[in-house]
Structures
1.
Amino acid sequence: MNYSQKALAALHHQKLKGFKANYILALRHDSDDDLYALASQLYNVGFSVQAKKIYQKLLKKYPDEDELKSDLAEIAIDDGQDNKALNYLSQVKPNSPDYVQSLMVSADLYQTQGLLGVSLQKLLTAKKIAPHENVITFALAELYFTMRRYNDAIPLYLHLIKKGIPEYAEVNLVQRIGVAYANAGMFNHAIGYLKQIDMKHSSPDTQFETAFTYLQLGDYEKAVHGFKQLHKRDDQYATLYPYWGDALTHLHRDTEALKIYQEGLRVDQYNENLWSKAGDAAIRKEKPKLAEKYYLKGHHIAPDNLIIAVKYSNLLVQARRYRDNVKFLSSYVKDDNLDPRLLWNLATSYRYLHDFKNASGYYHHAESYFADVPSFLKEAGLFYREAGNMKESYRLLKLYVKQVPNDIEMANLLDEYRH
């Protein structure tokens, strides 16, 4: 047993003093091949400082050995020394037998810098030079996955699986394909792969994607089961709560849904979407005061979220709190940031506050959005009748009756106008 092997054995048994002693002796006495193998092993287990020392020693002896430059570049990237890494990599020329490895390391460097397009070009160049290398195929698939180019990633993962490689670098490729299909919106394809995975040994993300896929496919019972299993494993997985609640809502289990949203808010109190969904659940449970509390919480977190603003405004109008609604929407009016539904709500509020001028303006503004909505046409038509504008009332009610011809009361009112 040489000193390199003794050093690794000591490290395996957590005998650091023995490792240090044999490491020093290896540097002095072992062959260059043994030292290179030792450096590779040390780097793989996180002893990059010791690996770096060996690589530097060997590079001084073999200055034209490009593989050593790529190895040192990898360590420089890990240490955040990007310029030093680029310096090593720039020394590896395209005619070098180690050029492909340098491209792979370069791709890794640019990916850590967020330059995914440059990283992709490096990998594509490597793929042209060595089209059958599994490591390049896998690296390309992973980069496409990171870039959310799932349609490009999936064929590469499938290629590796067809070669009898279901797992690469501790990554389950079946799982990756399932998640990629799910993220691409191809849920029927996704579930076929995700069902093959033993959820006990899958990542929380995969458990979530599987349950989410069942939700998208409308299999709400399986979705609920999946989210529940994920919750048992990690109740701090904040993303699961909105969708778990949604699955329960589809099953008309509103009491449970409300509890799930409430639990989610204890995990992530700044999630405006959860406040909104909790408000919706409270409405379905006929708890308007609780709904108001939740909508206002969401509104304070995200005042520009018009979905929440519309829901809260709807609640105020339904409660006939017209002054509160006008006051609530005043900032949106000031900023000219009004959803069409808010225009309608303002028109309704001003109507019942007997401010016919403002009501008329907002009904007129809203009409372009709701000209094909019978309930709007009827409401606006009756408002103009109250305001004494029979011409506008007749025009709108005529449009309404055309869409709802079986409303005898409104049809008779139109006849009155004609006579």
2.
Amino acid sequence: MKPNVTELVVYKDKCIGCGVCDAICPVDVLKMDFNSVGLYQPFESDGCLDKCRLCIDSCPFVEENKNEKEIAKALYSDKEEIRFHSDLGYFIDTYEVHKKDLNDRLKSSSGGAGHALLEHLLEEKIIDTVLSIESNNDVDKLFKFTTFKSRSELEKARGSVYYPTEMSEVLEYVMKNDGTYAITALPCFAKAIRLAQAKNSKLRKRIKIVIGLVCGQMKTKEFTHTLAKDTIGTDRLKSVRFREKQENQPAGNFAFEFIGQENNKIGLINWSDSRGPWNLWSSRAFTPMACNSCTDVFAHCADVVLMDAWLPEYIRDYRGHTLVISRTNEIKNILENMQSIEVKKIDYKKVFLSQKAVVDNKNAIFYGSKNIFINKINKIKLEIQKLSNEDYEQNKTKIDLLLMKIKKFEKIYRIINLPKRVVFKMYRILRGF
């Protein structure tokens, strides 16, 4: 039997679990489910067609397929007023956006631009259906992709989700139901959608707008369950909110809120707490191995891209701000004429700077770094990634020791990168001069 996506991608630990292969398979031999790591993957049954390549041709991690920049060039390079930046990709304009209604803004991620855009697309009948993520009534699968057809339904689609989801069911829905659709997608998911659209005319004609989310890395579901267990003593959850905004805190120090299934126990843990999400996030614990093969931060294949405004002028405002990249004139006109949001054009260089740390980190993992300390730190992080995905509980002692090692290297790195005058002053103080 010829190789398919299972042999070429899944068995090589390069599957991100997007679900496109399942949706596009003509004989339905691939089914998405969680694997032992806590990440979706396709599981194969008998009946794969020998001459079929659809699963391979639609996979974002098959090296022979077009990369995101090649796909983006075909999509956007001939647009009027188009510009290009090596990291941002093709774009027409860049913006800072936030909702005018404060309560709406506080319930939304960042400035609420994504939720506002989805509402507008439905209300103005630009599309019939939104494909996005909602909380799922299943303790083993806390979130899922689903369809939204009204503003009231979209209330369930607020907020960020740091939990695996997959698109097979909603893409199958698109292929079976005529209409116009917008879909929210991480960079690798957006790439998979574009690859599938090249092979399937229904996906190509019906999905009108792809809304991308800036991404530095995904996490397996064990990221959420480990934090929940540390916070409320159980990983059997009724619900999770990943972006509880904290008044009088910087925008980046939001909280995760966990509610237990059996006793409704509620627990909050701030992003930057010593045992909080940042500690695991930045160490690459629970990061899928496929993320090591990706450098697409700004969702090159998406028509519009949303991100946090990690800039000095916005970071202290807990209410949140969204930075937006528009790659089409349609999106540009929509954003500039929406009544529910405040929109301000912002220099594209600032948009890049807001995510420069993410870009640098992904590039250092993928290409390596010229800096010996960064390479040493990343080598430790890759070991943490491996150990956490094998068995976090069993390897926790090793992981904690590696985390301490990272902190030591980071401390040394910060000291040697201080201005020389500061280093000399510290040296004189230590020597008693």
